[in-house]
Amino acid sequence: MTEAEETLQAFVQQLYAQTPEASAQAAKALIWFLHYRAELLRWNERVNLTAIVDPEEVLTRHFLDSLAILTAIDPPACRLLDIGSGAGFPGLPLKIVRPAWAVTLLEATARKVAFLRHVCQVLGLQGVTVVHGRAEQLGHDQRYRGSFDLVTARAVAALPVVLEYAAPYCRVGGTIVLPRKGDSPEEMAQGLRAAEQLGLTLEAQLPISLPGLDDGRYLLLWRQHQPCPPHFPRSNAAILKRPAGERLGGC
């Protein structure tokens, strides 16, 4: 077993620590992750899914990084929305170790949607819905709006933009968890202003210190304390032209 495999299995075993046969469950999860990696790298030869192609780094920088969310929030069951899921991060690794969660993967690129559906079938994952669409459009769809206990988005956009994508989907009392790295003080300040407009409050900023991920990564936890105003999310053109939280008139 490689060092990255040992690290991933050890962390997964910690996640199962309160359940019987934790070692057996962690070993089974590792098998799923290795199958997942194999399909990811095979598809990546013809479909641009990831720039990370080193097999060891896939385990650390994709799978372990996704599971780091569970160091901040880990309910026994929840409805999770992963916006801009891409090749399935962080939604699918979370589903592998938390099978009771109902996971929705939202992705706008058809080829990535095809991969997500394929890998769910290969792994035999139940309770995963793959939705082909854009976050700023489906955020007004009553099937999804205000429907999720937990919303996440990884490497999708600048902080104020991703908050506007995410808040409409989160139920009142629900949580948005954003894995981040390298946000400037200015971007963070604008994100806090955007949060006020979107009905969010920042509850915590937690560093990620898992093996191989000690490079300044952190998690931002936001609470949806009131419903997101109905005009959000705006069109993508409007979001990019004037992101939420932007100061007007240079003030």
What does it look like?
The chain is globular. The mean pLDDT is 94. Strand 4, helix 7 and strand 5 (170-181) form a beta-alpha-beta unit. By secondary structure, the chain is of the alpha/beta class. The chain has 9 helices and 7 strands. Strands 3-2-1-4-5-7-6 form a 7-stranded mixed β-sheet, with helices on both faces.
Q: What is shown here, in short?
A:
By secondary structure, the chain is of the alpha/beta class. It has 9 helices and 7 strands, in the order H-H-H-E-H-E-H-E-H-E-H-E-H-E-E-H.
Percentage of β-strand residues? 15-25%
Question: What is the typical, i.e. mean, pLDDT?
Answer: 94
Q: What overall geometry do the principal axes of the alpha carbons give?
A: globular
Number of helices: 9
The CA-CA distance between the termini, in Å, is: 56 Å
Order of helices and strands: HHHEHEHEHEHEHEEH
Radius of gyration equals: 18 Å
Quick one: how many beta strands? 7
Helix-strand makeup class: alpha/beta
Q: Report on the biggest sheet.
A: 7 strands, mixed
Helical percent range? 40-55%
Strand order of the largest sheet: 3-2-1-4-5-7-6
| pLDDT < 50 runs, ≥5 residues | none
Sequence-ordered SSE layout with sheet pairings:
Elements: H1 3-15, H2 22-44, H3 55-67, E1 79-83, H4 91-97, E2 102-107, H5 110-123, E3 128-132, H6 135-138, E4 148-153, H7 159-166, E5 170-181, H8 185-198, E6 200-207, E7 217-224, H9 236-241
Parallel strand pairs: 1-2, 1-4, 2-3, 4-5
Antiparallel strand pairs: 5-7, 6-7
Helix pairs in contact: 1-2, 1-3, 2-3, 2-5, 3-4, 7-8
